């Protein structure tokens, strides 16, 4: 059995026209097929359908077989706007009709005919009845009606008139609203006269959207399958490993060795990436003046845009050819439309230069100079694009057209290679433009002999007396005596210039005058001329003088102008201290020193100003200057114990113990019964190893001052040197005077513990808790004593009572959890931790205890993320996160989190201990030394482990570095 052909290979039906069902018409312009052909007529279509129905053995379609009612209305359905959208024509008109379809068509046709008859019957009744003599119905009220035959005749006549009227209206509408096919009918007919050569020469329509270009680029791209060896090599190139090599070395955290033995340095790669990103961010930030924050340019300077083209170095290979052509077309349109517009010529010349067509660029800019002979920019661009010989000729022509252009004269001077030729050009320029300061400056710079330069400047100041630059340049070339006369002339010529007054002050400083009084006269003269600068501008001038080495002038400017426009009602102290801090931030320490000196003259008894000035000298000055300042400070503020103690401390640190003693003795006279001075004196004697003297100072302090702090320091002093009996006696005396001093109870209990007297220690803690029920450290000591004694129930009871007395305390909750954990009661510890986090949800100490001791290793990081969301910037939590990264060997992240914790609270000693312990394993020697130095400067005082080590009597003589190392050994 032969297989049936597929649809595309079957023979087309007779009279088949492709696309006819969707309304397409046969229209072609190809010369090989001949002129366009019209589609089949409706009669041909009807005949084809009838023939097809006969072949299928079915009756002809009724809708097409019925006679047409209106032969003359052949064009009713031509216009698609008047067609019925539900009429099945076109694609649906070629289907096979069955009996149901034929019956439906017959019914619709009957309905249409019936509706037509009804419309005709409505016209039978005339709207204006007229009398008729042959009316068969007789007369009625004098009116008669026409007969039925007459009415039918009249109806046919009306129908004919109506159809004629509708046809006229339709023709009028089609004439006023022609279809597109009718509009171009004449053009289509004229296509018959087009020859084959004209058809072939018709250009293709340009693609303005770039679609064709992108398609061609996509076609040129080729894709190849990557070999497995390349994929494997890329995988191995970035693989990390920690293994022992054959030679015994260890590779840790670096890429595998390559074939040539080199190794990938990821630190350099990361640094390069950061550098590129930094450059891009700087470029984006500098891309606009109005929106520097976002880095997006929001305005375009038309002049600056053309100027910036010369600063951009581009190569033709870096710019697409299509872009160059497009821009060239636009710029050619610009210069043709407005040939007198010089920037257009400059732009197209630079475009040709970028494209590598230097000859074309010179041609365009030459035309631009001809069209715009008065444009300086066009001539300068022409000079730049030509070599030296041609450039001289162009410069001469440019000057002929613009003989008063300073820029052209200077450019012509630069083209000369000989100094004499340069001077000759500038001499001619001065003849043409004697008022140009720039040309005079260039002429002076060419003179090698100072005498000739002075003569030129003298002539220049006579011609241009208002130029401050020329006056100052002349003064710099003269001797000090003549320079003073020059500045006096300049001051008379330009009385509103502050630069001349500043130059006069610097001249006095140069002449060795320590007292500069010029600035006082300057303020008066400038105020009289209403040319006084703002206070901030005077500070900037002072900083400029300091930068150039004029220290005395800097101080004189600050002394005379720092209080300008400030009244007594203003907060002058705060304003001046802020100004000094800004100058310190700029690195201008002499300016800040002058500001503090001026502020202290106005407010000599302000302790804050003295402390700020002392801090400046301590960080950026000398010891002698600091001592002198502190000596003046204690004389001005004798009641300030802080200044006395700082003065004594500076002397003591310099090794002058006797001077420190004398200072403290003077402080005693000025501040009787001051505990801080007593304690400072006791510490001084202790550090000097004068034990008896220190003991005597503390005894005197207990008698004269007698504060609880002095009693505590006295007990700590005795414990430090092992005299526990004396310490116990002192603590008992102190508790009789200060029974509410929790530290005395704690020290008494610790003394008993060190002697092994546990019952006495327990009794002491119990009595102390009754006297100080809200003392958390005392309660923790009592609970730990009971835990060490094995009485866990008693420890729990003490902590529970503490949580009732001091609610929402993280330390008590943490100790309760630790007691259960150390007793191996993990379930109860987790229950307590859940309650604690509900009671104190923002405690970093609780979260750290939970993460590190109650969570599995896999859950630590998710739990730490949850903690960071709930706790805002807690250094203890940050240390815990750093330890997690440390355990995962993510060393960079661990170091980053340690440093974040230190920045948050540098006084927390445990953070320094953990960081130093980390660096002992993974840091360099320089980094460890840097951390120790910073720790000594910060002098930490807090932390669980740090306090337990630092407050141990055996470690009382240790410095910060020794304590740090002991803390590292104790951390777990």
From TrEMBL:
<dbReference type="InterPro" id="IPR011990">
    <property type="entry name" value="TPR-like_helical_dom_sf"/>
</dbReference>
<keyword id="KW-0539">Nucleus</keyword>
<dbReference type="GO" id="GO:0046540">
    <property type="term" value="C:U4/U6 x U5 tri-snRNP complex"/>
</dbReference>
<feature type="repeat" description="TPR">
    <location>
        <begin position="742"/>
        <end position="775"/>
    </location>
</feature>
<protein>
    <recommendedName>
        <fullName>PRP1 splicing factor N-terminal domain-containing protein</fullName>
    </recommendedName>
</protein>
<dbReference type="Pfam" id="PF23240">
    <property type="entry name" value="HAT_PRP39_N"/>
</dbReference>
<keyword id="KW-0175">Coiled coil</keyword>
<dbReference type="GO" id="GO:0000244">
    <property type="term" value="P:spliceosomal tri-snRNP complex assembly"/>
</dbReference>
<feature type="domain" description="PRP1 splicing factor N-terminal">
    <location>
        <begin position="160"/>
        <end position="211"/>
    </location>
</feature>
<keyword id="KW-0802">TPR repeat</keyword>
<dbReference type="GO" id="GO:0045292">
    <property type="term" value="P:mRNA cis splicing, via spliceosome"/>
</dbReference>
<feature type="coiled-coil region">
    <location>
        <begin position="516"/>
        <end position="548"/>
    </location>
</feature>
<dbReference type="InterPro" id="IPR003107">
    <property type="entry name" value="HAT"/>
</dbReference>
<keyword id="KW-0677">Repeat</keyword>
<dbReference type="Pfam" id="PF13432">
    <property type="entry name" value="TPR_16"/>
</dbReference>
<feature type="compositionally biased region" description="Acidic residues">
    <location>
        <begin position="74"/>
        <end position="87"/>
    </location>
</feature>
<keyword id="KW-0507">mRNA processing</keyword>
<dbReference type="InterPro" id="IPR010491">
    <property type="entry name" value="PRP1_N"/>
</dbReference>
<comment type="subunit">
    <text>Associated with the spliceosome.</text>
</comment>
<keyword id="KW-0508">mRNA splicing</keyword>
<dbReference type="InterPro" id="IPR019734">
    <property type="entry name" value="TPR_rpt"/>
</dbReference>
<dbReference type="Pfam" id="PF06424">
    <property type="entry name" value="PRP1_N"/>
</dbReference>
<dbReference type="InterPro" id="IPR045075">
    <property type="entry name" value="Syf1-like"/>
</dbReference>
<feature type="region of interest" description="Disordered">
    <location>
        <begin position="241"/>
        <end position="260"/>
    </location>
</feature>
<dbReference type="GO" id="GO:0071013">
    <property type="term" value="C:catalytic step 2 spliceosome"/>
</dbReference>
<feature type="region of interest" description="Disordered">
    <location>
        <begin position="1"/>
        <end position="88"/>
    </location>
</feature>
<feature type="domain" description="PRP1 splicing factor N-terminal">
    <location>
        <begin position="12"/>
        <end position="123"/>
    </location>
</feature>
């Amino acid at each position: 059995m032969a297989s049936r052909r597929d649809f595309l290979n079957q023979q087309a039906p007779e009279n088949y026209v492709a696309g006819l069902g969707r309304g397409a018409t046969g229209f072609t312009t190809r010369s090989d097929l001949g002129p366009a052909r019209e589609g089949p007529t409706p009669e041909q279509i009807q005949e084809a359908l009838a023939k097809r129905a006969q072949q299928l053995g079915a009756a002809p379609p009724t809708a097409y077989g019925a006679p047409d009612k209106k032969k003359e209305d052949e064009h009713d359905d031509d216009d698609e706007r008047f067609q019925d959208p539900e009429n099945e024509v076109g694609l649906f008109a070629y289907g096979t009709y069955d009996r149901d379809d034929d019956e439906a068509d017959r019914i619709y046709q009957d309905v249409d005919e019936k509706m037509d008859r009804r419309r005709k019957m409505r016209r039978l009744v005339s709207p204006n009845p007229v009398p008729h003599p042959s009316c068969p119905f007789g007369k009625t009220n004098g009116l008669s009606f026409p007969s039925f035959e007459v009415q039918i005749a009249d109806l046919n006549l009306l129908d004919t008139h109506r159809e004629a009227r509708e046809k006229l209206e339709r023709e009028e509408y089609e004439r006023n609203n022609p279809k597109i096919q009718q509009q171009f009918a004449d053009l289509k007919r004229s296509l018959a006269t087009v020859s084959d050569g004209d058809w072939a020469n018709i250009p293709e329509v340009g693609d303005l959207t770039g679609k064709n270009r992108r398609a061609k680029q996509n076609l040129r791209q080729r894709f190849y399958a990557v070999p497995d060896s390349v994929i494997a090599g890329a995988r191995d190139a970035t693989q990390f490993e920690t293994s022992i090599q054959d030679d015994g070395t260890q590779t840790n955290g670096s890429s595998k060795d390559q074939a040539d033995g080199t190794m990938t340095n990821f630190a350099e790669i990361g640094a390069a990436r950061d550098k590129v990103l930094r450059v891009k961010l700087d470029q984006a930030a500098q891309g606009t003046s109005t929106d520097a924050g976002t880095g997006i340019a929001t305005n375009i300077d038309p002049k600056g845009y053309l100027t910036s083209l010369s600063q951009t170095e581009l190569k033709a290979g870096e710019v697409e050819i299509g872009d160059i052509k497009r821009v060239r077309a636009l710029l050619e349109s610009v210069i043709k439309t407005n040939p007198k517009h010089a920037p257009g010529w400059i732009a197209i010349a630079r475009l040709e230069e970028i494209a590598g067509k230097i000859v074309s660029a010179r041609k365009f800019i030459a035309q631009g100079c001809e069209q715009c002979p008065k444009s300086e920019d066009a001539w300068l661009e022409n000079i730049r694009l030509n070599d030296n010989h041609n450039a001289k000729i162009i410069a001469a022509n440019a000057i002929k057209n613009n003989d008063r252009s300073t820029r052209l004269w200077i450019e012509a001077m630069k083209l000369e290679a000989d100094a004499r030729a340069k001077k000759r050009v500038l001499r001619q320029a001065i003849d043409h433009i004697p008022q140009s300061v720039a040309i005079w400056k260039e002429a002076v710079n060419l003179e090698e002999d100072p005498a000739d330069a002075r003569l030129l400047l003298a002539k220049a100041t006579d011609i241009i007396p208002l130029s401050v630059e020329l006056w100052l340049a002349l003064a710099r070339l003269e001797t000090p005596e003549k320079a003073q006369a020059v500045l006096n002339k300049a001051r008379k010529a330009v009385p509103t210039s502050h630069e001349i007054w500043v130059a006069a002050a610097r001249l006095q400083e140069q002449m060795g005058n320590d007292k500069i009084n010029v600035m006082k006269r300057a303020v008066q003269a400038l105020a009289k001329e209403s040319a006084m600068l703002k206070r901030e501008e005077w500070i900037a001038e002072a900083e400029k003088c300091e930068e150039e080495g004029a220290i005395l002038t800097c101080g004189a400017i600050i002394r005379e102008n720092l209080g300008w426009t400030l009244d007594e009602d203003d907060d002058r102290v705060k304003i001046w201290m802020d100004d000094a801090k800004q100058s310190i931030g700029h690195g201008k320490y002499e300016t800040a020193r002058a500001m503090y000196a001026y502020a202290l003259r106005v407010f000599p008894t302000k302790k804050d100003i003295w402390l700020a000035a002392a801090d400046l000298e301590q960080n950026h000055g000398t010891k002698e200057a600091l001592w002198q300042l502190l000596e003046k400070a204690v004389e001005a503020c004798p009641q300030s114990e802080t200044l006395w103690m700082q003065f004594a401390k500076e002397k003591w640190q310099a090794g002058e113990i006797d001077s420190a003693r004398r200072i403290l003795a003077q402080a005693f006279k000025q501040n009787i019964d001051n505990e801080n001075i007593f304690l400072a004196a006791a510490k001084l004697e202790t550090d000097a190893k004068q034990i008896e003297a220190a003991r005597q100072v503390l005894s005197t302090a207990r008698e004269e001052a007698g504060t609880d702090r002095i009693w505590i320091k006295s007990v700590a002093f005795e414990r430090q040197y092992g005299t526990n009996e004396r310490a116990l006696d002192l603590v008992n005396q102190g508790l009789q005077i200060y029974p509410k001093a929790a530290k005395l109870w704690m020290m008494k209990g610790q003394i008993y513990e060190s002697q092994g007297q546990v019952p006495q220690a327990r009794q002491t803690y119990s009595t102390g808790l009754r006297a100080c029920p809200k003392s958390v450290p005392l309660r923790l000591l009592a609970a730990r004593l009971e835990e060490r004694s094995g009485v866990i129930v008693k420890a729990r009871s003490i902590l529970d009572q503490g949580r009732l007395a001091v609610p929402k305390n993280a330390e008590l909750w943490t100790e309760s959890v630790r007691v259960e954990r150390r007793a191996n009661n993990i379930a109860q510890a987790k229950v307590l931790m859940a309650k604690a986090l509900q009671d104190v949800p923002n405690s970093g100490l609780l979260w750290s205890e939970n993460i590190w001791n109650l969570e599995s290793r896999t859950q630590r990081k998710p739990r730490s993320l949850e903690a960071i969301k709930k706790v805002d910037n807690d250094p203890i939590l940050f240390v815990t996160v750093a330890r997690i990264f440390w355990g995962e060997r993510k060393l960079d992240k661990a170091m980053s989190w340690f440093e974040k914790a230190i920045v948050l609270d540098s006084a927390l000693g445990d953070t320094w201990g953990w960081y130093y312990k980390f660096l002992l394993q993974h840091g360099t020697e320089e980094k460890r030394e840097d951390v120790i130095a910073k720790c000594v400067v910060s002098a930490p005082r807090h932390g669980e482990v740090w306090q337990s080590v630092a407050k141990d009597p055996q470690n009382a003589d240790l410095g910060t570095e020794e304590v740090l190392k002991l803390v590292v050994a104790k951390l777990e």
